[in-house]
Amino acid sequence: MLIMKFGGTSVGKPERMKKIAELVLSTPGKKIVVLSALSGTTNALVSIGEHLLAGQKAKAEEVIVDLEKHYEAFIKELYGSEAFLAIGQEIVSRYFIFIRLLAAGQFDNKSYRELLAQGELISTELFYQHVQERKISARLLPALYFMSIDENEEPELEKISERLKPLLSSLNNIEVIITQGYICRNHRNEIDNLKRGGSDYTASLIGSAIRAEEIQIWTDIDGMHNNDPRIVKKTIPISELTFDEASELAYFGAKILHPSTIVPAQKYNVPVRLKNTMDEKAFGTIITSKGTEGSFKAIAAKDGITAINIKSSRMLMAYGFLRRVFEVFENHKTSIDMVTTSEVAVSLTIDNNTHLASIENELKKFGNIEVDKDQAIICIVGNKITEQKGMLNKIFDALAEIPLRMICSGGSPNNVTVLVHKQYKNKALNLLNEGLFGLK
Ligand code: ASP
Ligand code: MG
């Protein structure tokens, strides 16, 4: 079984949706097709939900009207026959009746999450009818029948796998199974989601749950690149990555993948392939457990980082100090990315300032606290790079002109991370592109 996941831009125009039907058809074997919402839909649903939570029903209705028009135009181009156009119209009007029903009621966070799920529900239904029109043997398998998260919002892989077994064996003769990305049920059995960009995660959870042959993530670029093409002029696609390299890159800024995607795939050793719907011949990127060692693969950056420095003479030769510091972050459900220590101080970074004020307050009991906002993490990735001689030199030579606020190396052999003020981010990415890859 193959998992083929298509993102918002791959289904965002009627001709693109037709194109992916062809791609699915021309791929041999059985597959589970995971779809995102049409591009722009989840953003529109977010804005409808925000307006409703703020009690602004009229503003919400304006966005609903625009979105509905978008879908009405979409189906006119998607379906070829009057009969299927009528089915499409029925689907669109049914969803918009439901969206307005949600909007008219007492709108709370639960209704909001239900609203967010409508994007993937409608895109998969429209696609399913499109393949029906083309007489492809396919079925729609609702993600809400098997995809779930626990009270800590962690996917329940074992349960997902148990639920999928009978569902899939009942569809034994079907070539194409279509399901929704992103949406799931939470521990209260309510409709929830895997956070923005979560359709990739759905694909890898399904692929891992059923030990698929391969998880394919189809987007609109040809795989991972060695650097951020919005910031540096020249980038090169990377054909092979290890799971470790790919998770570092996804986590530290490569926008192409939801950061958790690699975790289940790595656990069950299912290869993840990144492919381009605009250029299906392009090789893309294959992510597996094997890799070539010792060369730089890519650089990624993550903005919006806050560095916190705790200076305390009580740390001197004390034990348990770091545990108490980390506990403060744990109590505030705030995860730490980078950590550096000296004998009397520790610096660490977070990417979520929601609880910063209370974290700062609690840390004060340990010593002097300094907070630097607007930092950027630059992450340099390559299989076992820190085990090779001279690799760190190359990095620091390239960055000679940039003040580095923190440096992390040795946590994993596959990456070196530095923290810079955001004003140096673009320059650092360009200097590394030239210094490590010879690209100008
Ligand atoms: N539709 C959701 C989003 O825009 C999930 C996804 O596309 O992966 O975030
Ligand atoms: Mg995405």
Automatic annotation (TrEMBL):
GO MF terms held by the record: aspartate kinase activity; ATP binding
A UniProt-annotated Pfam family: ACT_9
SUPFAM superfamilies: ACT-like (SSF55021), Carbamate kinase-like (SSF53633)
Record EC number: 2.7.2.4
Amino-acid biosynthesis found in the keyword field: yes
Amino-acid positions noted as binding substrate in the UniProt annotation, renumbered to this chain: T42, E120
Domain Aspartokinase ACT: from-to ranges: 378-434
One of the record's GO cellular component terms: cytosol
InterPro entries hit by this protein: AceGlu_kinase-like_sf, ACT-like_dom_sf, ACT_Aspartokinase, Asp/Glu/Uridylate_kinase, Asp_kin_monofn, Asp_kinase, Aspartate_kinase_CS
Residue numbers binding ATP: K5, F6, G7, G8, T219, D220, R230
Catalytic function, reaction form: L-aspartate + ATP = 4-phospho-L-aspartate + ADP
Domain Aspartate/glutamate/uridylate kinase: 2-276
GO biological-process terms attached to the record: homoserine biosynthetic process; lysine biosynthetic process via diaminopimelate; threonine biosynthetic process
Family the entry assigns: Belongs to the aspartokinase family.
Descriptive protein name: Aspartokinase
